Amino acid sequence: MKITRKNLDDAVSENIISSDQAEKLISFLESQPNTAPSFDFTHVLYYLGGLIAIGAMTLFMTLGWETFGGAGILVTSIVYAIIGLKLTQILDRKGYYIPAGICATFVVALTPLAIYGFEQMLGLWPDDTVYRDYHRYVKWHWLYMELGTLAVGAIIAWKYKYPFLMMPIAVTLWYLTMDITAIITGGDFDWELRKLVSMYSGLLMIGLAFWVDVRSRNKADYAFWLYIFGVIAFWGGMSMQHSDSELSKFIYFSINLIMIGVGVVLIRRVFVVFGALGSCGYLGYLASSVFEDSWLFPISLTAIGFIVIYLGILWQKHEKSLTFKMRKALPTPIKELLEAKQRG
Fold first, then answer.
1. What is the pLDDT of residue 174?
2. 295 — phi, psi (to 5°)?
């Protein structure tokens, strides 16, 4: 929970603390370094600038770089990496942890470009694809770039321990599962298989994120980006599956409802957002296809909506006792994780 001046003023009005204590506490909190990301103008500028720089060397890479040749690309990548690491060290020493983490992430994002340049320089590149295709197509020979990125990411994350470093690691794990499948299938990798691989790799990444979440429950939020890309991969792969079975569609709806519940319990909005999108999509399908000519469907849906609201009221009234009973049955690490999130 974020403590605001209004919270302290309310505490003073309830005679919990004195106004002098409130002023001293707010002065103390304002003097602490802001190490956690938040939605303010400063952090928006940090991440906007960082994502522009990272995007320039990844998603938005142009064909003009190919004129440098493999050696030129490798040397340029190394120079950029040295600058990025130097900026990381300077910013870290000064206590600017968010921009320091972004600079460290920039270095990790450069790794596949450097490996591509190295392979081009040695004449080991197997076909006429270029670096910017790395983010567009599934190819077996991206594997070296992905493994190298994971290795560099693990080393830098071990040294600096910035949560944002998990972002390129999560993306690379997603790419890696696709390319390993291309190797196993001999390159015969149709869209149906891609959807399945995306769904199951997303599920594995969610499991990894939960493990990281439990392990780092008293530290920074290292699981955030793993959850983001895990849910996107899982939900995207699941939502693109085609089925003519009403039962399958209802199961899809049920899984989305479970995702909403998981998101509420773990306090992870990404589950709630995508679960809500999937649930609304299913209800839209019912309205437009199954019950297209039914006057009763909107009335029934309205009634269900009000029942859900009433359940919310009941939950609010009995939240403490229900939460206590539910958590009592959980393993100690998971209980500590939920308590840490509730305090945060």
1. 86
2. -80, -15
How many CB atoms neighbour CB 319 within 10 A?
Answer: 10
Instruction: Note down the domain range covering 80.
Output: 33-165
Asked if residue 233 belongs to a domain, the reply is no
**Contact between 112 and 146 (Cβ < 8 Å):** yes
Query: How many C-beta atoms surround the C-beta of residue 101 within 10 A?
Result: 27
CA–CA distance, 145 with 209 (Å, rounded to integer): 23
Work out whether the CA dihedral 326, 330, 332, 338 comes out positive or negative.
negative
Contact between 226 and 172 under an 8 Å Cβ cutoff? The reply is no
Q: Is residue 176 part of a domain?
A: no
Q: What is the pLDDT of residue 130?
A: 83
Tally of structural domains, the chain: 1
Has residue 279 got a pLDDT over 80?
A: yes
Q: Which of 26-30, 196-200, 328-332 has the lowest mean pLDDT?
A: 26-30
Overall pTM > 0.85: no
Does 117 fall in a domain? yes
Query: In 3D, which of 87, 83, 109, 108 has the Cα closest to residue 98?
Result: 87
The answer to whether 271 and 259 are in contact (CB under 8 A) is: yes
* Contact assessment for residue 199 and residue 238, using Cβ atoms and an 8 Å cutoff: yes
Mean predicted confidence (pLDDT) in 11-23 = 78
**What share of the chain in percent tops pLDDT 70?**
87
Distance CA 173, CA 229 (A): 9
**Rounded average pLDDT over 71-98:** 90
d(CA 227, CA 274): 12
- Of 333 and 187, which is predicted with more confidence? 333
- Is residue 149, in this structure, part of any structural domain at all? yes
